[in-house]
Amino acid sequence: MTPPEPRRSRAPIVCCDLDGVVWRGDDAIPGAAHAVAELRAAGLRVVFLTNNSSGRVADNVARLGAAGVETDADDVASSAQAAAALLARTAPPGARVLACAGPGVTESLVARGFVVVDEGPADAVVVGWHRDFDFERLRRAADVVRAGVPFVATNLDPTYPGADGLLPGAGSIVAAVATAGGRRPAVAGKPEPAMAELVHERYGVATVMIGDRPSTDGAFAAALGCPFALVLSGVAGTAGEEAIPQPRPPFVAADLAPLAPALIDAFAPATRPS
What we know:
Radius of gyration: 18 Å
Strand content: 15-25%
Oligomer: single chain
Strand order of the largest sheet: 5-4-1-13-14-15
């Protein structure tokens, strides 16, 4: 079953990452919710794009609500959805897919008509971030990969920002499966074309991409053909994993709160809602 067509709008589209931008681990980043409200009040549509494939759509919507950001399911897109869309190009509905991943990947695969299994034999394998990855899951996924079936990774981020520092990301899990299976995967999430196509299909032309990881979010802004707005509340900056790119992105701020006014000045419609 193909997912329903999301609503589209003519408002400028602000694409916003989640980990390191709206929250770090379980903690909301101070000022982020108010910044989103300011952007919306200025006539900008804020949509949320995450490479973290573990959460289901409802989980991400609920987590945004808990962080003070009320949003619709239509305004959340994940690498899990991009991975399922990418796999659908080569695997038919009803194919058995081993999901070495979290509930978000399972949900997205089922929405595309796939049958999700925990072990082989399988017609394809999708690998994404999940906390219960272990040797047995590695063995099962690698067995299916070695069989030569389609192998899709949700994303290759090596880490993601937690409340107390950087945590292993999906790329670390994918690297283990690829090494044991002897094959490289097709990759779906930011900054890859599958995620860009998902954004274009759902939202149209992006106005700006906000993120904390230049190698992923910055590259994705280039793929979308829009400016990159870098926040230093995640992996970038002097205390982070990645340096601030040179030349600097057109927008750089400590976090979303001081970034919002600059984006409003640059991109808000001439006639704003009263």
